[in-house]
Amino acid sequence: MPNMPEHEIHPYIEFKACPDATLGMEIEFQLLNPVTLDLTDGISVLLNSYPETPEIKPELTQCSVEINSKVCANIRELEADVISLVRTLKGRCESLGMALCTAGAHPFSRRPVGITPRPRYLAIEEKMAYLSRRMKTFALHVHVGMPSGDVAIAVLTLLKPYLPILLALSASSPFWEGEDTNFASFRQRFLAMMRDYGVPPSFNTWSDFAEFLKNTHTAGLSAISRDLHWDLRPSPGFGTLEVRVMDALPTVRENIMMAALVYTLIVYLLRCHEQEACSYLLPHHWWMEKMNHFNASFHGLDADYIFDDQGHSSPIKAVIQETLQKLTPTALELGTTAYLQHLESHLVNQPSYLRQRRLFQETGSLKILVATLVRELEEDLAV
After folding, report:
1. Where are the beta strands (DSSP E) in 149-291?
2. What is the DSSP letter of 219?
3. 158 neighbors 200 (Cβ within 8 angstroms)
4. Alpha-carbon distance 63 to 52, whole Å?
5. Strand 175-176 to strand 139-145: parallel, antiparallel, or no bridges (unpaired)?
6. Which of 90, 151, 195, 209 is the most exposed, fewest CB within 10 Å of its CB?
7. What does the DSSP 8-state code read for residue 279?
8. Distance CA 70, CA 77 (A)
9. From CA 185, how far away is CA 45, in angstroms rounded?
10. Residue 20 burial (10 A CB sphere; 0-12, 13-18, 19+)
11. Is residue 356 within a helix (H) or strand (E), and if so which, with residue range?
């Protein structure tokens, strides 16, 4: 999303309401040495070659670059904007002697990575020490505009049961530092070591959330709302609900599929809230939420999903199919039907984590795997 001012922590934090369900996304990309295909600390050189722009941003580590879409009215506008941004970024990286790809984690990089020398990131390094220099993870974030802070908090609670679905579909980090972790998304397991990542708590009102944020500031745990790196969080400066649980996926097309799902799902839940109607999946005990999250990161689309506090479960694929059926009217309204159909036929049947694992089993080479990630992005942008 475009740069907007963050607010200091006050007893009440202004939420910059969006009257329409606007849409935006961020994708974190891996900067690579084109010969070794290992991560390279290239962000400073890359940013020096760009004029100051909110669309291309640094991240915590110097081996990562993030693209930020403009605020879009619909999924087709978002798709066109992101394709243009990534094409330009890829060309710029190549002109500077770097390759570009993305996935939830780099499969074989073992070295500690450099921290981007900006005050915010250096402060994170001071707090997180060793962990910050091992943060070789790459995410997809989707923002959807909310009409008020109270509505954002209500939809946040309704959306939490769906986070394992989004994680299972986007899982693309089975390898870590040269090892097959047996996880679909090891990125999530690495982030679980950090103090402010994971499934967020629930709040009753925006005022409750603002009070919580004020208290974390008093405790010295946060300075601004962006310091809460939850899988799902309100973003008051943007006036959005931001979904952060997903691994970055290798192609723009796959990331847009996930954005379409998040967009449709949030608007569906917004309608449920407005009409005081129950959604398909209901919030339940935090421990069950935690177990569903772990199962999705471990088993991906082969996970079982616990759907009530009595422990009853169903295969997550069945839950995904039922969710997509429930979203049909909303998808027609938003123009996302084709994207969700492609998602069901592609990501459910050919998830990235299985494609990566099968390729490694066939070739025995993680370097070939990274070369394939580079090629997947290149071929996708050429279409």
Report:
1. 175-176, 179-180, 197-198, 229-230, 232-235, 240-247
2. T
3. no
4. 19
5. unpaired
6. 195
7. -
8. 9
9. 30
10. exposed
11. helix 352-363
DSSP per residue over 63-83, as a string?
TEEEEEPPPBSSHHHHHHHHH
- Confidence grade of residue 12 (pLDDT, cut at 50, 70, 90): low
CA 160/CA 244 separation, integer angstroms? 12
> Is the CB of residue 145 less than 8 Å from the CB of residue 239?
yes
CA-to-CA distance for 302 and 299, rounded, in angstroms?
A: 5
Looking up tokens 């990286």 gives: 93
- Over residues 141-188, the pLDDT tens digits come to 999 999 999 999 999 999 999 999 999 999 999 999 999 999 999 999
Report pLDDT digits (tens) over 317-374: 999 999 999 999 999 999 999 999 999 989 889 999 999 999 999 999 999 999 999 9
Amino acid identity at 7: H
Distance between CA atoms of residues 201 and 153, nearest Å: 10
Q: Average pLDDT of the chain?
A: 93
Closest CA to 375 of 100, 54, 36, 23: 100
User: pLDDT for 302-315, tens place per residue?
Assistant: 999 999 889 899 99
Contacts of 242 (CB under 8 A, 6+ apart): 141, 142, 143, 232, 233, 234, 235
223 vs 213: CA distance, rounded Å:
9
> Per-residue pLDDT for 301 more than 80?
yes
Residue carrying structure tokens 């769906």? 162
Could you read off the pLDDT of 33-87 as tens digits, one per residue? 999 999 999 999 999 998 778 899 999 999 999 999 999 999 999 999 999 999 9
Give dist(CA 17, CA 19) in Å, integer: 6
The rounded radius of gyration (Å) of the Cα atoms in the chain is 20
The residue to which tokens 């069950």 are assigned: 288
**CB proximity list for 339: less than 8 A, separation 6 or greater:** 75, 256, 257, 260, 261
Going by DSSP bridges, is the β-strand pair 64-68/139-145 parallel, antiparallel, or unpaired?
unpaired
Among 64, 10, 6, smallest CA distance to 211 is for: 10
Backbone angles phi, psi at 186, to 5 degrees: -75, -20
Asked whether the beta carbons of 237 and 7 are under 8 A apart, the reply is yes
